[in-house]
Amino acid sequence: MRCACCDRVFEGDGLEICPDCLKGLQLGGNPNRDNLLSLFLCGRIKYRYAASLAAYEPQNHLSELLRMAKYGNRPRINSCLTRLLAERCNPVHWPGDIDAIIPVPIHWRRLLRRGYNQVTPIADTLSEMWHVPVWNDVLLRRHFAASQVGHTWQDRYDHQRASLRVSHIDRLRGRHLLLVDDICTTGATLLAAAERLLEVPGVQVSFITLGKAI
Ligand SMILES: [Zn+2]
Fold this sequence. Notes:
- This protein has one domain: 3-Layer(aba) Sandwich (Rossmann fold).
- It starts with 18 loop residues before the first helix and ends with a strand.
- The chain has helices spanning 19-24, 36-41, 61-71, 75-88, 108-114, 120-130, 153-163, 169-172, 188-198; strands at residues 50-56, 100-103, 139-141, 164-166, 176-184, 204-213.
- By secondary structure, the protein is of the alpha/beta class.
- Helix 9 links the parallel strand 5 and strand 6.
- The relative contact order is 0.18.
- Strands 1-6-5-2 form a four-stranded parallel beta sheet, sandwiched between helices.
- It binds zinc ion.
- Zinc ion binds next to helix 1.
């Protein structure tokens, strides 16, 4: 079979990632124990489960793969990494009682410019595996978020929080929602999105990202 990441042909048993690529990923452990994302979120927000697949830093294996997926328009990479995440990160918990998968939204102008949303294949793959619906219509971006490089963390967080809004509140009430993004870098976007959802009575949140910046 052909590796989804490096395109080399290898002897495989179902997973479309070759042993070399797998080794290069330095996988991130189990959710709620030693997982990079849950360690980061712990104490910052109330959540049920959190998991990232692997550490993300400039030029490491995961960042190269995600760059290929995004700029080489190869969503299959994101799907394969998502399957790996779902299988490796504690199958006891996932999907548990999660009612819906919520992709962190990007603005339509950015979507137009980029041509595709790299979070979509992650959300769709989880949905297919777990038979849990993706709700694209509940977390929306109000206005175009210009690049926040150079601002403080609090500036980024405030900006994200102001630019996100929640819709269909009646449907969300009392639900356990899984927020999905490709990379958690500063965490400002993910935390702002979760805070918005947690304003709805009875909502619980969990998190999945492929990479957690270190
Ligand atoms: Zn490979």
